[in-house]
């Protein structure tokens, strides 16, 4: 809407060297399907793009990539039958526990507190032969989960229960996070790749894990693919299904480009700080840059400690 208001200030302008086109896309949180469709239909020939993004009215010239991952961990046939009979019997007992955290955007997990991680750490301390009756947490892959729930039957004789498979996956995730520390990109905060387990759900015959990795430009495609291959190999080993549901590469625009210099000139005219920054999240710029479009992001709204929180907001003065 702010862009529409700005373009409406030039109703009679016809001498554009680069005519502006206002594009509205959809599905940023679900694969950027609108932006993908625009690229594939090839309806506009574009050299530069200004992507709307909450940036605190600072210019963003680089963004992390995103890998959205789903893992389906099957219950054994013995466990499925045990859980069914357990729920139908009258004199049965289970133990349950709630875990609380703090919601935040998955690109800045340090601003939140993961209830699922608390739950998994607790599960590591329990005997491996227990039966997980119910395990649940989070709202979506892209948010640090603020709640999680675990219900177990600690007395069972089942061999290789799903609890063992879950803890093996979680240990691999912790090892991957240690590996992330070797890749630091000073242009970003946090400077290294990050990982978020955003959602866990119990289904009739399996447990679903959904999460995301945020990758700075310093992480090459080969390194990323090796990380995904190692997780997939573990999942195959325990009989689980691993899938990369979505992947968008990181990007970085040359700060000496004409686009960046002109944007900074305009920012100075508005009396704002001409700071260049980056974003740890991912937007349409990751798509546009892959097809040769030079991109920056800019917009009203604070990022850190605001996005994906209960009181997320944008200041009206910033919109003006």
Kindly summarize this structure in a few lines.
The chain has helices at 2-7, 33-41, 77-88, 115-124, 162-180, 221-237, 258-269, 285-290, 316-319, and strands at 48-52, 59-63, 65-74, 95-100, 104-105, 131-137, 143-144, 147-153, 194-202, 206-215, 241-248, 251-252, 276-279, 294-298. It is α+β, with helices and mostly antiparallel strands and 320 residues long.
Can you tag this structure with a few keywords?
320 residues, alpha+beta, 4-stranded antiparallel sheet, 3-stranded mixed sheet
Instruction: Name the average pLDDT.
Output: 92
Query: Could you state the order of secondary-structure elements as H and E?
Result: HHEEEHEEHEEEHEEHEEHEHEH
Number of strands: 14
Biggest sheet, strands in spatial order?
9-10-3-11
N/C terminus separation: 11 Å
Rg, rounded, reads 23 Å
Structure commentary:
The structure is a single chain. The chain is an alpha+beta fold. It is 30% helix and 26% strand. It is built from nine helices and 14 strands. The strands form five sheets. A four-stranded antiparallel beta sheet has the order 9-10-3-11, with helices on one face. The chain has a three-stranded mixed beta sheet with strand order 12-2-13. A hairpin with a 3-residue loop joins strand 9 (194-202) and strand 10 (206-215). The mean pLDDT is 92.
């Amino acid at each position: 809407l702010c862009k529409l208001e700005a373009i409406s200030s030039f109703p009679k302008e016809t001498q554009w060297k680069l005519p502006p086109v206002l594009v509205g896309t959809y599905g940023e949180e679900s694969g950027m399907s609108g932006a993908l469709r625009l690229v594939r239909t090839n309806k506009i020939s574009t050299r530069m793009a200004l992507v709307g993004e909450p940036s605190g009215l600072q210019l963003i010239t680089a963004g992390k990539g995103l890998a959205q991952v789903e893992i389906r961990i099957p219950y054994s046939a013995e466990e499925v039958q045990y859980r069914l009979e357990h729920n139908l019997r009258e004199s049965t007992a289970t133990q349950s526990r709630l875990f609380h955290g703090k919601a935040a955007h998955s690109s800045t997990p340090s601003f939140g507190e993961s209830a699922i991680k608390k739950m998994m750490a607790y599960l590591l301390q329990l005997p491996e032969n227990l039966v997980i009756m119910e395990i649940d947490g989070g709202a979506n892959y892209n948010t640090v989960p603020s709640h999680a729930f675990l219900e177990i039957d600690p007395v069972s004789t089942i061999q290789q229960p799903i609890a063992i498979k879950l803890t093996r996956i979680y240990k691999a995730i912790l090892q991957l996070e240690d590996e992330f520390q070797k890749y630091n990109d000073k242009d970003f905060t946090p400077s290294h790749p990050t990982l978020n387990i955003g959602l866990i759900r119990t289904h009739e015959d399996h447990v679903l894990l959904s999460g995301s990795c945020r990758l700075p430009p310093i992480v090459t495609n080969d390194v990323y693919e090796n990380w995904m291959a190692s997780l997939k190999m573990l999942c195959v080993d325990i009989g689980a299904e691993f899938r990369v549901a979505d992947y968008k590469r990181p990007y970085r625009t040359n700060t000496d480009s004409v686009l960046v210099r002109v944007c900074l000139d305009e920012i100075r005219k508005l009396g704002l700080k001409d700071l260049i920054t980056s974003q740890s999240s991912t937007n349409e710029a990751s798509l546009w840059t892959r097809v040769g479009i030079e991109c920056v992001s800019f917009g009203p709204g604070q990022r850190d400690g605001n996005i994906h929180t209960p009181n997320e907001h944008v200041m009206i003065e910033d919109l003006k």
